Amino acid sequence: MVASTARVGRTTILGFGSLLSEQSARLTFPDLDEFRLVRVRGYRRVFGHAASIFFERGIADAATKEFSSLSAEPCADASFVACAFEVDVDADAWARFEAREEEFALADAPFAALDGGAGGEGVLCTRGSDAAFVERWGRETYERKYLAHVPSIWDWSRDSGLRPCACYLRHCVLAVTKAGPAALDSFLDDTYLVDRETTLRTYLDANPHVMDTRPPESLIGRYSG
C-alpha cells in the first residue's frame, strides 16, 4: 500500500460502496468519465469503523451499534469488485476530497479490469487510525465529531458487536444492484462485518429490517441508491 498524496491533474478513483452506481458516483463527481468495473486485489471490504456523518445526519442507532461505515483494509488473499473512474482535480478539489473522506487513509491501490482491458492504480479509501485523524484534523475535531458519540473511530474489536448503519447499508445495496450482478454478488460475498467472518449476505438474510430502513425525507435524494 502506498500512501496517496495531494495531486493535480488526471486521477483514478476507486469506489467500493455506493459509488459503484455511476448515478450515485456522479452526485459526488459530476464530471467523471471512463466509469468501469474492476477488481481490487489484496484488500478486504469491511464495515469496521464508526462514521461521524451518520450521527450528524441522524441515521445512526447507538443502542444497536448500527453506525459503522465501509472501508478497505489490506488482506493478502482477499479481493472485491469495485469501480474505477477518472476525474480531473486541482489542489482545492483534492482538499475537498480529503475532507469528505476525513477518517480514511487514502492509498494508491492496484486494480485489474474485469473485461480483460488494462488495469492500473487508483485512490482507495483504506483503514485509517484515530491517531492519524488527530494528527491531520486536530484533537478538538476528534472529540467533537467522534468522542461525543463513540469511544473510537477505528479501534473496534472483532467481538465489539459493531454493525453497519442500516440506512447507509440499504443505500449501498440499492446502488450496487444498479451496477449489475458481478458487483452485487461481490458486495454481498466479499464484504464483512467487524468480526471479519460474517459476510454481508449472511447479515442481510438475518436482518431484513435493513432493506426496510428508509432515509429521513431530507436525505431521500442522497440515501436512495
Which helices and strands occur, and which strands form pairs?
Blueprint: E1 2-3, E2 9-15, H1 22-28, E3 33-50, H2 52-56, E4 66-89, H3 91-100, E5 105-113, E6 120-126, H4 130-137, H5 139-147, E7 163-164, H6 166-178, H7 181-189, E8 191-192, H8 200-206
Parallel strand pairs: 3-8, 4-7
Antiparallel strand pairs: 1-5, 2-4, 3-4, 3-5, 5-6
Helix pairs in contact: 4-5, 6-7
What does this structure look like?
With 225 residues, this protein is α+β, with helices and mostly antiparallel strands. The protein has a single domain (9-222), classed as Hypothetical upf0131 protein ytfp, CATH 3.10.490. 30% of the residues lie in helices and 32% in strands. It has helices spanning 22-28, 52-56, 91-100, 130-137, 139-147, 166-178, 181-189, 200-206, and strands spanning 2-3, 9-15, 33-50, 66-89, 105-113, 120-126, 163-164, 191-192. Strand 5 and strand 6 (120-126) form a beta hairpin. The protein is globular, with a radius of gyration of 17 Å. This is Gamma-glutamylcyclotransferase AIG2-like domain-containing protein.
* Sheet with the most strands, sense and barrel status: 8 strands, mixed
Distance between the termini: 30 Å
How many helix segments? 8
- Could you name the CATH homologous superfamily? Gamma-glutamyl cyclotransferase-like
Q: How large is the share of residues in beta strands?
A: 25-35%
Cα gyration radius (Å): 17 Å
State the shape. Answer: globular
User: Percent range for helical residues?
Assistant: 25-40%
CATH domain topology:
Hypothetical upf0131 protein ytfp
- How many separate domains? 1
